[in-house]
């Protein structure tokens, strides 16, 4: 028996046939379309599910359930995409639409929640009961596992740690507030911080690195810092400081076993976790007498979405 | 049958005999002592429990359980005061010590957690499943009820929303970090903000109000603002803004049914809740499509501690 995990993204909808022990044994992908009244996203998800089964040489009789990870606000109880910003969607009853085609349990949840669950079931969070997962990508997303279960807030509308203000009246955030963690700890924020530092220091190696890459990216400061550039190192240190402040906030609220970092920036591994663990050990509330919170890199990388969606069936 | 709720504070240890419907039918209080190896706080709690029973004319046979609300870090599973700052305590196995005297269930928890639970069981949180309780007092404390149950974090060491940084590198906090919510939204913070504004504006009515009261207090700005003082109104608005930023952070993470405000400042009632509800409705994440978070004043006031401690037996 298998699960099917579907990872919906702005560019593509990826499906995976997942074995019980968390191996992806077949894959199928379609590009993300523009959806409207006449063509629902459920139609593309159906294609992905069928394509995935065909690739794996199985039928729906071999599938125990279908899980879908979706960016944006999802009502996981009613199986509805409440709202998605990047793919223009509003109130789409995906689960009901798919049930017409597949007579198996179908679940949908927010993509960051799925990734959190995937990490706890199959990845770096295995064996931990209380896991905070934070993704440092285009935005800052997160998911919370409390006592082995996904915590979503009332009507699945919580778990938005990226929209926790860490600098009152600070940088503008897409959500309409000012000073959100996302406006300081996302890749977009790091690029902004990098550009500002480059402007001030024309001699920084970051200019050379950006020219090589053809643009300023989330890696520019990290790469130049590795080459010994002082200004770049300052950018990296300041950025990690912002990341750390948010992580400690979450530690003080949730006090989990472990905080897992995913997303593009997490590829920097120890360059992130070493200073962040130090901050955590020194500055989290009652660090001397309270249980330690570990800071680790998430392990599922690009497969977190598919595996996490499949893990919805196990929750 | 009754419960006994014990509310441990820096000045006194208050006991209450609590009926099943949340009425305090008898009370007994002793002053808080200095405790050491030879004299444990359990000894004073024992006196409070016995005094409370005597006042109520009952014996331990009439008591279903004893609940204790304790400031600081409490291991509620093992029944140990892990650490308390205001009353110098470290690793006191209160529950085991009291079990020698009382053969009934005995539970202990952090005082803000107790107040949260008390409000949800007996107070303004009645009927809600997901409640965030925030106390705006000397410090900023909090408690979280998720799906009707107290959420304490791993080993009961979470639920410290006062130590969420809202201004990176901001005002110094007692916890060692800079910019914690407590350093902006506590009574002590408001007094600091009031004093700073008074210094800048010698004509403000706040000077008159402070002279009347003999000191600058958490009420000085609110009272002067009510009399039409512009500088005082600015202090109040700024303060409420800081409170609101923290509340919205918690709404975005927990998306509860309701956020309840307790502590000294909560006596300002609508002057707090009206602007805070407006902020919440405008600025919480996805306010247009996500379920609304209500902001209300907690109702149990000074009895929250006793009633919340008693409610531990019901959790």
Describe the structure.
Two copies of one chain form a homodimer. The first copy, chain A, has two domains: 2-121 and 303-311, Nucleotidyltransferase, domain 5 (2-Layer Sandwich); 127-298, ATPase, nucleotide binding domain (Nucleotidyltransferase, domain 5), CATH 3.30.420.40. Chain A is 37% helix and 23% strand. Chain A is built from ten helices and 13 strands. Chain A has helices at residues 41-56, 94-99, 111-122, 182-185, 187-200, 205-213, 220-226, 230-254, 270-283, 304-311; strands spanning 2-8, 12-19, 24-31, 63-70, 73-75, 80-84, 89-92, 106-110, 131-136, 140-146, 149-151, 258-262, 294-297. In chain A, the strands form three sheets. Chain A has a five-stranded mixed beta sheet with strand order 3-2-1-4-8. A five-stranded mixed beta sheet of chain A has the order 11-10-9-12-13, with helices on both faces. In chain A, helix 6 (205-213) packs across helix 7. The longest helix of chain A is centred in the last third of the chain and has 25 residues, at 230-254. The radius of gyration of chain A is 20 Å and the shape is globular. The mean pLDDT of chain A is 95. The interface between A and B is large, with 45 and 45 residues.
């Amino acid at each position: 028996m298998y699960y099917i995990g579907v990872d919906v993204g702005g560019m593509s909808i990826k499906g995976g046939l997942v074995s019980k022990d968390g191996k992806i044994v077949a894959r199928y992908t379609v590009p993300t379309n523009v959806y409207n009244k006449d063509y629902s996203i459920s139609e593309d998800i159906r294609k992905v599910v069928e394509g995935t089964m065909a690739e794996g040489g199985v039928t729906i009789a071999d599938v125990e359930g279908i899980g879908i990870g979706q960016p944006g606000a999802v009502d996981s109880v009613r199986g509805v995409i409440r709202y998605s910003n990047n793919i223009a969607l509003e109130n789409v009853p995906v689960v009901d639409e798919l049930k017409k085609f597949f007579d198996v349990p179908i679940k949908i949840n927010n993509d960051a929640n799925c990734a959190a669950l995937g990490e706890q079931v199959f990845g770096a969070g295995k064996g931990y009961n209380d896991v905070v997962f934070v993704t440092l990508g285009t935005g800052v997303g997160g998911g919370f596992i409390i006592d082995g279960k996904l915590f979503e807030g009332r009507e699945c509308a919580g778990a938005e740690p990226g929209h926790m203000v860490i600098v009152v009246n600070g940088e503008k955030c897409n959500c309409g507030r000012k000073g959100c963690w996302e406006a300081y700890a996302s890749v977009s924020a790091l690029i902004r911080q990098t550009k500002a530092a480059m402007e001030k220091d024309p001699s920084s190696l970051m200019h050379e690195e950006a020219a090589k890459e053809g643009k300023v990216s989330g890696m520019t400061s990290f790469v130049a810092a590795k080459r010994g550039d002082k200004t770049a190192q300052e950018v990296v240190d300041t950025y990690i400081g912002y990341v750390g402040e948010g992580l400690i906030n979450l530690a003080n609220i949730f006090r989990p076993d472990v905080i897992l970092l995913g997303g593009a920036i997490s590829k920097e591994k120890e360059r992130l976790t070493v200073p962040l663990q130090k901050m955590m050990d020194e500055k989290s509330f009652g660090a001397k007498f309270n249980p330690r919170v570990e800071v680790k890199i998430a392990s599922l990388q690009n497969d977190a979405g598919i595996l996490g969606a499949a893990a919805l069936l196990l929750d």
